[in-house]
Amino acid sequence: MTDIKNTNDEQVKSAESSPKNLNTSGFGSSFGSSFGSSFRRPTMMLDSAAIPWAASGSGARVGPSMSMEASLTLHTKLAVNLWKGRKPTSAKVRDGIPGVLRFAKEASKAWNEATMSNPVADMYLILVEERYEKASRKIEESTAILKELLDVQNVFDGIGVMNNNKPFSYELRFSCPWGYLACALLKKYDDLIRLALTAKHIGFLGDQDWKILVNDVGKAFRGFLQSLDAFIPVPMDRNWFERGMTHKIAKVYKHYGFANREMPNVPDDIMSGERRPKVCPPIKNEAERQKIWDANGPFTNKDMSELVKPMTIRADEAKKARKERYKAEARKRSQRVETDDNNNPD
């Protein structure tokens, strides 16, 4: 640090003793000519006290959370129906339509379970990704066909895509990325329908073409929204399976009211954590998961807390229980012997 300061002092003194080499009136030609000959740039002093904001930088603070704003605008009725969904009628005259709002809610549950090392949640999120890619690919293929159909025509000078005079707009706020990804896919599907309506309105698209380019894509999109219909947000951990605790999973299902449901078969690479979804949250460490389970249940009661106890504690408790059981059986045998002796005196 001393060498840097001395070097800087010598350069400053040299510059003060030769003011003719510096042009302080501006960045003119004289400054450019003297720069290469005698001017030497002073070395920066690495002294934090000389920087005004360095001393007070430790007082800078930001809030604990961040937020964002996003909105979605839809122009077609088919897209709006997929946004809000529809419940099936009691007489099953009309089937239900899975909506993006319900999908986002279920995806948030699967996302939270994935942070707790739930292999079933990872398996369903992988299914969501596969169906998302399938629906996205179909939408892109149909969109490319319709755009080419409208571009190659030579009848009209320019064709504007149909717009709704009163479109539907909604402010988006989801807790996991899959809600926004579903909305992005729905927006692409809405644009596809607008192109198809435009082509059909001017007579370039028939009913059979509509079925192939629009209806089949809608089926793929609804299949994507139905990816999580069978997912049950039941807490579980990969460690339970590694520790031979699969027989206790039934207790968790029963606690949540799913006693008649069986746990799905999870592939080995997903169970081990080797394969996870591309879009997935990081897994919390075991200490954080234990803290969440203790705070939010159902692991606060005795029956559920046994699921997450370390193996050594469970083994010690089992050994102690066996000893107590043996002692109780020995007392019963001794009492029976005394009773027989009293009933049969010599």
TrEMBL record:
Query: Which InterPro entries would you find in this protein's record?
Result: AcaB
Provenance organism: Marinagarivorans cellulosilyticus
Q: For the region Disordered, what residue ranges are annotated?
A: 1-23, 312-346
The superkingdom listed in its UniProt entry is: Bacteria
Instruction: Give residue spans, biased composition: Basic and acidic residues.
Output: 1-13, 326-339
Q: Which residues form a coiled coil?
A: none
Q: Where is the composition biased (Polar residues)?
A: 14-23
| Protein name (record) | Uncharacterized protein
